[in-house]
Amino acid sequence: MSEWFTETLHADLGQRIRIDEVIYKHITPFQSLLIFKNKLLGKVLSLDGIVQTTEADEFIYHEMLCHVAMLTHHRPKRVLVIGGGDGGTLREVVKHRSVEKVILVELDSNVIEACQKHLPALSAGAFEDPRLELIIGDGYDYVVSTDHTHDIIIVDSPDPVGPATKLFSSQFYQNCRRILSKTGVLVTQNGVPFVQRAELLNGAKLLSENFHDVAFYLAPVPTYQGGAMAFGWASNFPELREISLDELEQRFARAALATSYYDPAIHLSCFTTPKWISNVLYNSELQNPNP
Ligand code: AG3
Fold first, then answer.
1. Could you give the CA distance from residue 87 to residue 79 in angstroms, rounded to a whole number?
2. Helices 197-208 + 275-282 axis angle, to 10
């Protein structure tokens, strides 16, 4: 009889993944960390019983979390990553030659160590990049206390349960705005709308309280169960998103990025949300987190 991992994220729906081999298991001071192997997915990283990333589909999430903002912005120099201890987002950020400095703030050093050892393809050496300043600490506290400005802030967080809840608050977004440069962009992982409708509504409300231009874009990440994942986009420059396919293609070619999901056409189309999601966002009658 094989052993199965059962995800505990949603109350009414769950996914299970066969554990072909346990690679690493550790209760850190912050969470329970598990890395196991599955034939279809490769190595799987779970925190507190929730799939964070898998070797098979991490590229979709990390490319979309990073490149949409990085290529919309004109030459981002200073990038802040909140969370992302597995290194996948960092790997994508350092592909951009315009980046002079990237600060990554991760709460749990155990995640970085375990992933560097057991999931080295995630960071692919990015933790050795000389442009990186690594801070082990609370991302919320960092954002509230720093005075440095950033061109892009990427929140690569778990779901809003446990310690990550503060990263989905109005105070957090307000401080992100405070430390963003004038044409800066904040991007967040905003859950899977079909199963996490409240997260989408909450994100829309709290981001709009703090930014002029708020949007959501989508990408399907198979192991984030329940359909496409929503990414939050917040800036004070709506014009940023009016970029043409032509311009994006030029920037993409100039940046010479090796990607497997992202390309300029995906970039422009991912902001097109299906009717039911637009209804959730803009039709107040449907603004009920528990339909
Ligand atoms: N951060 C996002 C995990 C979200 C999973 N939750 C879900 N299925 N809604 C993962 C960190 C990867 N760098």
1. 14
2. 50
Contact between 59 and 124 under an 8 Å Cβ cutoff? The reply is: no
CATH code at position 230: 3.40.50.150
Q: From the CB of 199, is ligand 1 less than 6 Å away?
A: no
Catalytic residues: 156
Q: Is the domain of 127 the same as that of 150?
A: yes
Residue 98 CB coordination number (10 Å): 15
- For the record, the structure tokens of 202 come out as 């909450």
Name the residue type at position 261: Y
Instruction: Compute, in angstroms, the gap from residue 99 CA to the centroid of ligand 1.
Output: 25
Q: Are residues 15 and 66 in the same domain?
A: no
- Write out the two tokens for 70: 């990085």
Contacts of 162 (CB under 8 A, 6+ apart): 31, 48
Range of the domain at 15: 3-54
Q: Ligand 1 center to residue 101 CA distance, Å?
A: 25
Whole-model pTM: value is 0.96
**Distance between terminal CA atoms of the chain?**
39
**What's the rounded Cα separation, in Å, for the pair 288 and 236?**
27
Angle made by CA atoms 97, 265, 87, in degrees to the nearest 5 = 40
Grouped pLDDT means (10 residues each) for the chain, 291 residues: 93 97 98 98 98 98 98 95 98 98 98 98 98 98 98 97 92 98 97 96 96 97 98 96 96 96 98 93 57 43
